[in-house]
Amino acid sequence: MSARCFAAERVVLPDGLDEPGWVLVEGSRIADAGRGSAPVPVDESIPGLLVPGFVDIHSHGGGGAAFESADPEQVALAVATHRSHGTTTSFASLVSAHPDAMLSQVAALADMCDDDVIAGIHLEGPWLSPTYKGAHDVTALRDPSPEELEALLAAGRGHVKMVTFAPERAGALATIRSCVDNGVVAAVGHTNATYEEVVAAISAGATVATHLFNAMRPVKQRDPGPIPALTEDPRVTVELIADGIHVVPPAIRFAKRAASGRIVLVTDAMAAAGAAEGMYVLGGLSVTVADGTARLTESGVIAGSTLTMDSAFRRMVLECDSSVVEASAAASTTGARLMGLDDRGHLARGAYADMCELDEDLRLNRVWRNGALIGG
């Protein structure tokens, strides 16, 4: 197996930003990486920045295709769209659906996990608050139960990796504990919970804030709600949709200070990401996409995003006071670690050779997944 050496002016390695640095790739894996001049002949000289491939733990689709369709061609199209924007590892998020439909979706997506198309499944519902339902069908919302969770996990054959809860719903704490017992990440989101109810959910094992700020009870001085509880606890990883629409840069900077080192960028992308604007359907609800924003046609509520991870990474650095190292951690390393993917999200010996080349303006040039150039 021949090795290829990539040398770049700047490389984000696990110990920080190096100028220059190098990565040695053998087959699909990284054989070695380091700072300074490469110890072997260079095969690829990169004048810009080399960062780990992006990891998106919360996305609903892209390229005109939706994960909820559970159609292999549609799922592959959505994943390919995001790979072309640097996301080398995608998790498929499902919006709320009625029990039989959700079981069917999970079972079909599990096959896509077996085929290494997606890395896992995130159930963003159906156990959410009707008050903060966002773009979820209110008729599909219900109280959680360990029994329904067990059925969904069985359908997923080990590929359901994260579940979002509104912890104020009856049965939520018991079902969160069941998630933890089954090795599944429990998240808090789409919630009208009080501060105390979220603290109880974290004590039960919840470790993620699903798209902080969005679809949750806001902060008030005598009724702090979920946001302070989620940002102050060091056990909680905080999702942010850094598109400047869901969350504007000042709020992102606030979240960075409140949850330093615990930010994970997500796209929450729906089918219109990387596709034409117009009319779409999300969870059975009509969505209108115009001027880069997806909204429910009937109510105008934001309905997912058209964000891609390369854009989120760039915004974090240029508008949100993040260093390249911080943005890389948020776009790659933190999400991979959260989901137990020790071989993704960083450029280190033994990891898969997932890499993004960015120019001096932090625009994406090339993407490699498992050592292979995407689109090459």
Distance between the termini: 20 Å
**Largest sheet properties:** 8 strands, mixed
**Which residues sit in consecutive blocks of at least 5 with pLDDT less than 50?**
none
- Write the H/E string, N to C: EEEEEEEEHEHEHEHEHEHEHEEEEHHEEE
In round numbers, the mean pLDDT is: 97
Please state the structural category. alpha/beta
What coarse outline follows from CA principal-axis ratios?
globular
What proportion of the residues form beta strands (DSSP E)?
Answer: 25-35%
Helix tally equals: 9
**Helix fraction by DSSP (H/I, runs of at least 4):** 25-40%
- According to DSSP, the number of beta strands is 21
Roughly how many Å is the radius of gyration?
20 Å
Question: How would you sum up this structure in a few lines?
Answer:
By secondary structure, the chain is α/β, with parallel strands linked by helices. The chain has helices spanning 72-83, 99-114, 146-156, 172-181, 195-204, 226-232, 249-258, 309-319, 324-338; strands at 3-13, 16-18, 21-26, 29-35, 44-52, 54-59, 61-62, 65-66, 87-94, 120-123, 160-165, 185-188, 208-209, 237-240, 263-265, 278-282, 285-290, 293-296, 355-358, 364-369, 372-373.
Write a structural description.
This protein has 9 helices and 21 strands. The chain has helices spanning 72-83, 99-114, 146-156, 172-181, 195-204, 226-232, 249-258, 309-319, 324-338, and strands spanning 3-13, 16-18, 21-26, 29-35, 44-52, 54-59, 61-62, 65-66, 87-94, 120-123, 160-165, 185-188, 208-209, 237-240, 263-265, 278-282, 285-290, 293-296, 355-358, 364-369, 372-373. The strands form 4 sheets. Strands 1, 2, 3, 4, 5, 19, 20 and 21 form an 8-stranded mixed sheet that branches. Helix 5 (195-204) crosses helix 6 (226-232). The protein is globular and about 60 Å long. The relative contact order is 0.17.
